[in-house]
Each structure stands twice: as C-alpha cells, then as structure tokens.
Amino acid sequence: MGETRPLRERLRQRTAEEIEEAAFALFGERGYEATTIDQIAVAAGVSTRTFFRYFPSKEAVVFGDHQRAVQRLRMALAATDPSLPNVERVRRAMLAVERPGGGDNRRRRQATLAGEVPAVRAHHSRLIEDYEDAIAEVLASSPDAGPDALLRARLTAGAIFGSLRAAQRVAHNDPAVGGHQLFEAVFDLLGGMRSSQERERPAAAGDPDRGPAHS
Prior knowledge:
By secondary structure, the chain is mostly helical. The chain contains 10 helices and no strands. The longest helix is centred in the first third of the chain and has 27 residues, at 4-30. It starts with a helix and ends in a 10-residue tail after the last helix.
C-alpha cells in the first residue's frame, strides 16, 4: 500500500500534465475561445469525463499547477527569517520559488492567456486569493506576531498582489519592460513606503500629554 499510493499520485500528475499540454497546444493552434473541452480530451487521449475529474473548467486547466505553486510559496515563506520586514520576507520567498521573467514557458503562456482572455483573467484573479491567504497565514504565525498580526499580514499580501497585477498590465502593454524589472520595482516601492512610514511615525506620535510633536 505504501508503494501503491505514490505510484497512483505520479500517474495522476502525469495525466494532468498531458491534459495541460494538449490544451496549450490547441490554444496555440486554434485560439482559446475556439478550443472545446471535448477537443482537449481527445488530444490528450482521455474521455471528457476524465477531463472533469482533473479540471472543473477550461480556465482551470490553464492553471493546473496552481495548488502546487501555492504550497511552494507557503514553504519558501515559512523558511525566511521572521525578523525581516514582511514585504522583504515575501520578496525573498517569491524569488526562491521562481525568478520573475525567467524561462518558465508555462508561466509565460499563462500570463499571455490571462492578458488576452477575460475569462482566464477573471479566473486568475480568483486564484490570487489563495496566494494572499497563504502569505497572510504564514506571516501572522510568526513567534513575535502582535494582536493585529493577521490584519497587517492580509494588508501586506493584498498590497503586494495588487501591485503585481498592475505590473503585469504594464508588461502586457509594453513587452520591452522585463518581468524581473517590474518585480523589483514593486518591492522597492512597497519597501520604500514602509521605511517612509516608520520615519514619520515618531514625529506624528509626539507626547500624549502635550499633543502632536512639532519639528
């Protein structure tokens, strides 16, 4: 039994990958909208019923690696130094999982479809919540987390992915701008905002008995 389960999991993953590859090949040949689930199933050598055992929709097959990607990010983030600022921890975790603008053909194809097909873009936006949840849970579980840790962690995750979505739109409209360049710009901006807030905080706090401090 101990050997059968891993083999079964490997076979399931192989079938899922074959369905994904068949789908992307058809998307490239016929276009996303013109490709049907039945055509994907035939190209992958499986039944339509089998397709739906692996993927609930055509949009889902575009992001077939989603759950694995979320888990990789979760583990990478948990391995970062909890004494670092939250934004820097997320930056390091994301770089450890996958270098932005790297040679991952799957990511490029996903980004292209998300940029061109509204249904894929909407599906991807819903999946982003899984990344935000994973990040928030890990950051909020740090040993020195305060009572408002979950709120801060969720705001951090939301700010990061909101900025990354904006960066993706820039990349889609201007292919000359590299993915790594935009990635670093996002984290430089967020890190700079945090540093600015911390510099201003003592001046704004002042002495509670005398009102706000003045420069």
